[in-house]
Amino acid sequence: MSWAIIQQSLPMFGKGFELTLWLSFVGIIGSIVVGLICSLVQYFRVPVFHQIASVYVEISRNTPLLIQLFFLYYAFPVLGIKFGAQLCGIIGLIFLGGSYMAEGFTGGFNGVSKSQVESGKAIGLSRWQLARYVVFPQGFSLSVPAMAANVIFLIKETSIFTVIAIPELTNTALDLIGMYYRSNEYLFVLVIAYAIILVPLSIILTLLEKRVRYGTFGN
Amino acid sequence: MADKVLEVAHLEKFYGKKHVLHDINFSVDQGEVVTLLGPSGSGKSTLIRCLNGLETYQKGTITFEGQKIVPTEKNWQQLRQKIGMVFQSYDLFPNLTVMDNILLGPTKVQKQDKQAARQEAERLLASVELSDYANAYPRELSGGQAQRVAIVRALALHPDFMLFDEVTASLDPEMVRGVLNIIEGLADQDNMTMIVVTHEMNFAKQIADRVLFLQDGEILEQTSSKQFFSNPQTSRAKEFLDSMDF
Amino acid sequence: MADKVLEVAHLEKFYGKKHVLHDINFSVDQGEVVTLLGPSGSGKSTLIRCLNGLETYQKGTITFEGQKIVPTEKNWQQLRQKIGMVFQSYDLFPNLTVMDNILLGPTKVQKQDKQAARQEAERLLASVELSDYANAYPRELSGGQAQRVAIVRALALHPDFMLFDEVTASLDPEMVRGVLNIIEGLADQDNMTMIVVTHEMNFAKQIADRVLFLQDGEILEQTSSKQFFSNPQTSRAKEFLDSMDF
Amino acid sequence: MAHSGISVLFEGTNFTRLLGGLWVTVKIAAVALIFGIILGIILGGLRTFKNRPLRVVLRLYLEFFRVVPTVVLLFLFYYILPRQMNFNLPADQLATLVFALWVGAEMSDIVRGALISVPRHQIESGKAIGLNRFQLYRYVLIPQSLTLEIPATINLATRVIKTTSILLLISVMDVINIGQQIIEANNHTYPTGVFWVYGLIFLFYFLIDYPLSWWAKRLEKRRLEKANG
Amino acid sequence: GNSKSSSSNNPSSVSAIKKKGTIRIAVFGDLPPYGWVNKDGKRVGYDVKLAHQVAKDLGVKVKFVQVNANNRVDALNSNKVDLVLANFTVTPQRKQVVSFAKPYMKVSVGVVSPKNKPVTKVSQLQGKNVIVTKGTTAETYFTTDQKKVKLLKFDSKTQQFNALKNGRGVALADDNSYLYAWSKSNPKYTVGIKSIGPKSYIAPAVKKGNKSLLNWTNKEITKLTKKSYFVNDYNTELKPYFGKEAKPSDIVLPTK
Ligand SMILES: Nc1ncnc2c1ncn2[C@@H]1O[C@H](COP(=O)(O)OP(=O)(O)OP(=O)(O)O)[C@@H](O)[C@H]1O
Ligand SMILES: Nc1ncnc2c1ncn2[C@@H]1O[C@H](COP(=O)(O)OP(=O)(O)OP(=O)(O)O)[C@@H](O)[C@H]1O
Ligand SMILES: [Mg+2]
Ligand SMILES: [Mg+2]
């Protein structure tokens, strides 16, 4: 292991690091939006959209991101639809993450106890008010651990972007290895880079799981 | 005859193929207190939940304040402002403070003025000796306190009619009394019309004008409280009363 | 003086910094029935759980059948065959049938002959009128039935001593009697030594030879049952008794 | 124009070759799951013990496999293991090993979560009739935690199967790698072949994973229904 | 990494290979006409044929390990293969990490682009996207000598050619030896720049320190060159795939 090699590679890894963060950030925000829309459509059983959301969730959850990306990046252009690599990556990540987030929210909404819903009904809340004041606030708290787990999952999935030539962290490492053959050093930096992003998140996740298990609300 | 607030006629309820309520007929007069007694699984909760639209029923009619109820979710939602209900499991919303729990109905459903609603809530909280807890979250309350708040939450809508389903069943014995006192106050001082499901026989005896005794989803007896406790007509009711005081 | 089965001396228990049992001293004679009374949170469950090794204690000694207990998990595991315990929440193992629940201790812990253990289990089940339920799973039982099985499960190990912690607290009122009858039978006919925590005052009155009244982790009174119920010495005990019959 | 490309799938032995690749994929996933689940059950059980050093070590193991993306894990093992430890495996076996270790980590968390969610009073009831620690696990904890574990484990299996797609990066002859060979070999005869080959692989994965996740959902639903009476 | 291995426990020495009865050779799987898998699922190509010849002359069976450009070095160093015959260009960096035997092919970097927008000068590429495969000499050349060119880096040949066809870059740079072949089967494209950067050679590679196999391979290459084996190999495996743009002397080393 040579520190000089590591040091030389840091500027390149820095760029990869930024890109991984940026793509993850956009992908996660997008996933939350898509997931929220899907879970709301399913919660209120909006006709047609409700079925569309279900089909989408099943397709997205049961196929690998890598194939989704290959499709977007290599196969779609054959049909005349072409996006840039980063856009493909983001679309793919949102396509995948949206369903995971949707399941997370839906799980949270369903986790709100029946007696809470009935108490809400008993004081005359309408369907919308019930959702607004009872189901959503409690459901979101319940879905927080699932959300955190999804965030970690999605950040890790960005490593697959390497197959569509996005120079994120993993791609950077593999590229450097291909050129200079110092796999020990580059893999070391790579693991550290992911640890910097993910270890804090993983710790937060553990704390959140504990908090929700003991059902804390308010402050 | 006094004003009939509620009339139930030929009510039938099935869970799938299971027939849990058989041809239920009774009515409740303005200001009357009816207690619903009966062994576990006899259908007390199911009946009372039908009266608040929390369960659908397959046959029969419910008439409230002279109007036959068309049982759509929308109608029920309107009616629930007039028919308050309190459950066994003091289900306050854990994400809201005591005050917000109470204000939710008056301000969001009834669109009452926030200031006025808050004053009324404070008055009600004071009446159950919980003024200090307005800003507490439900988890900071004991079971008895939480149950009292749940009653206040229902009362804040100023219902014409109250349904209580075993509201003391999950309380510690020492906490039962405070809750029962409040219900007694509602019956005696406020002359509230209500149906009370309870396992506290002494309390039932004290509060009830009339008793409905349910068994396997059928009303076996429907008599004045005095008569029921001194001289039940059916042997099943007698057996039931015997088992209750050991 | 009769044989002392159990002797507790200077027992102190902390949960973290919270001092929940203060200098507890008492003993139980062979064949004696002691009931433990006191308000919620007074430490009844904690005390009884210390006697079965489910809680650690910080000071004091417990002497069982003349032997001072060295409180290691291994020793307790041995002793638990002699000191049976039944909890409030009829905790049968949901993955085993009634019969397997009962046989688990005798066959796996005591390595009894399976055939003999089964016969004994059948006898015990018959004594609580549940012979028909040997092959049922716990979820098919009512609360009262499950609690009776839980008692049988503890008895199947032929303990010298039984601890009951509010075994009827989560039962429907009608089911309470069956369970209490069985405990009464154990006390009267089998002359079993036991400590019973209960909220059923009538039952306590009927069964107890002696009462320990606990408050905030201290034994406030320790008198004969007759004296306690007719003329409690402390005002706190009097207050407690008042609150229990509404 | 696109529809003419579909025949690329049936050209020569292409279809059987793709199925062969799928078999490699499934085999790696299956073997990894079997060993990983066994490992995870053992580790998960150990993680409920009170021994602090043991718990710290197992926790670090879990965190490592949870934090490092699977692609990176594969490369770590692929590049570093043989050279630093003189430990050499063909790519598919190496992939199986990495996946098994990863499954073991995830599984240990599932098992631990399920074990600690068995109600405390069940453990106490077990103790009260004199069961020792081993008997407590054998007769009470493990059987009761199964209903919680099984749906989570099936979901883990679908994730593992999906993740096998990255095997192509370490040159395992999996279904995607074979797909690329076919795309390349038929490049000029079927310019739209890429669409159909990836489409078929997409379908393959869906056909394997969908029934599994459907099953997991059903079990989970039944468990919840049972739990809520 | 430490790649020292004494010949006594060298698993890739000639004697060890003969003892095992198999030689493991790294080849490409998606690079017609050098190393690829044809419609019938058979490995074929110029390198593959050479691999079969090597195995035959060693008197052992051959086991192929498919590699991508960026893991050819590690395949050797982590003892995954004994020999690399995967269009492996000799470069100074690579010489530090593996041992090359005598070369069997000439090569330099070429640039292929669409016929309707041909790239004929490197200056046309400045600020534009150029497609390469990770770990190739083309990547190294552009990274070190043409810093103004933006690179899109892929893992495999399939991916890089698909990307070119999808128009993800204005051109693709790789060894000219297979750009000739590829452009013949993709007539809309042309090798607009036939050769840039240093001329170089393609050679078999073994793990550093594997003297035994290195010497053997050197003798083998010399022998095969003398027998005009590579001209034959060219005529059967490459010629059908090359356009008029190429002739044997562009690729094969002179018989000396
Ligand atoms: N959701 C349900 N699905 C099917 N059967 C149900 C459902 N809820 C209740 N039942 C059945 O309906 C019958 C009446 O139940 P109900 O809860 O109304 O009894 P109850 O008189 O309130 O009993 P308790 O005193 O135990 O509260 C019982 O046989 C019960 O098993
Ligand atoms: N695990 C624990 N950690 C901290 N404090 C505890 C714990 N368990 C019980 N306590 C506290 O110890 C005190 C005694 O509790 P215990 O459960 O023994 O009371 P109890 O007399 O059995 O009450 P109840 O009648 O409600 O069952 C209470 O103040 C309680 O809050
Ligand atoms: Mg009920
Ligand atoms: Mg207790």
Automatic annotation (TrEMBL), chain A:
Please provide, in alphabetical order, the Gene Ontology terms of the cellular component aspect for this entry. Answer: ATP-binding cassette (ABC) transporter complex
Its annotated compartments are:
Cell membrane
The molecular function terms of the Gene Ontology recorded here are: transmembrane transporter activity
**PROSITE patterns per UniProt:** ABC_TM1 (PS50928)
**Family matches, as SUPFAM superfamilies:** MetI-like
Q: Which CDD domains match?
A: TM_PBP2
Per the record, membrane topology reads:
Multi-pass membrane protein
Assigned keywords, A-Z:
Amino-acid transport, Cell membrane, Membrane, Transmembrane, Transmembrane helix, Transport
Where does the sequence pass through the membrane?
20-44, 65-84, 90-112, 133-155, 186-208
* Domain (ABC transmembrane type-1): residue spans on this chain: 17-209
Question: What Pfam family is a match, any one?
Answer: BPD_transp_1
Q: Which GO terms describe its biological process?
A: amino acid transport
Coiled coil feature spans? none
**Entries under PANTHER family matching the protein:** AMINO-ACID ABC TRANSPORTER PERMEASE PROTEIN YHDX-RELATED, MEMBRANE COMPONENT OF AMINO ACID ABC TRANSPORTER
Which family, according to UniProt?
Answer: Belongs to the binding-protein-dependent transport system permease family. HisMQ subfamily.
- In Swiss-Prot or TrEMBL terms, this protein is called ABC transporter, permease protein
From TrEMBL, chains B, C:
The terms under GO molecular function for this entry are: ABC-type amino acid transporter activity; ATP binding; ATP hydrolysis activity
Record flagged with keyword Transport: yes
Does the UniProt entry include the keyword Ribonucleoprotein? no
Question: Which residue numbers delimit the ABC transporter domain?
Answer: 6-241
Judging by the UniProt lineage, the source's domain of life is: Bacteria
Please name the Gene3D superfamilies in this protein's record.
Answer: P-loop containing nucleotide triphosphate hydrolases (3.40.50.300)
Pfam families linked to this entry: ABC_tran (PF00005)
Q: Which UniProt keywords apply?
A: ATP-binding, Nucleotide-binding, Transport
InterPro entries reported for this sequence: AAA+_ATPase, ABC_ATPase_HisP-typ, ABC_transporter-like_ATP-bd, ABC_transporter-like_CS, MetN_ABC_transporter-like, P-loop_NTPase
Q: Which family does it belong to?
A: Belongs to the ABC transporter superfamily.
> Under what name is this protein listed?
Arginine ABC transporter, ATP-binding protein ArtM
Record organism? Lentilactobacillus parafarraginis F0439
TrEMBL record, chain D:
Tell whether Ion transport is among the UniProt keywords.
Answer: no
Domain (ABC transmembrane type-1): residue spans on this chain? 22-213
Q: Which UniProt keywords apply?
A: Cell membrane, Membrane, Transmembrane, Transmembrane helix, Transport
Q: Check the record and name the PROSITE patterns matching this protein.
A: ABC_TM1
- Annotated InterPro entries: AA_ABC_transptr_permease_3TM, ArtM/GltK/GlnP/TcyL/YhdX-like, MetI-like, MetI-like_sf
Topology within the bilayer:
Multi-pass membrane protein
Q: What is its main location?
A: membrane
GO terms for MF: transmembrane transporter activity
- One Pfam match, given by its short name, reads BPD_transp_1
| Stored CDD domains | TM_PBP2
Entry GO terms, CC? ATP-binding cassette (ABC) transporter complex
UniProt xrefs under SUPFAM superfamilies: MetI-like
The signal peptide here is: none
**Cell compartments where the protein resides:** Cell membrane
> What's an example Gene Ontology biological process for this entry?
amino acid transport
Q: Which residues cross the membrane?
A: 20-46, 58-81, 93-111, 166-183, 195-216
Record family assignment? Belongs to the binding-protein-dependent transport system permease family.
What PANTHER family does the database record attribute to this sequence? ABC TRANSPORTER MEMBRANE-SPANNING PERMEASE-GLUTAMINE TRANSPORT, MEMBRANE COMPONENT OF AMINO ACID ABC TRANSPORTER
Q: What protein name is recorded for this chain?
A: ABC transporter, permease protein
Species in which this protein is naturally found: Lentilactobacillus parafarraginis F0439
User: What is this organism's lineage?
Assistant: Bacteria, Bacillati, Bacillota, Bacilli, Lactobacillales
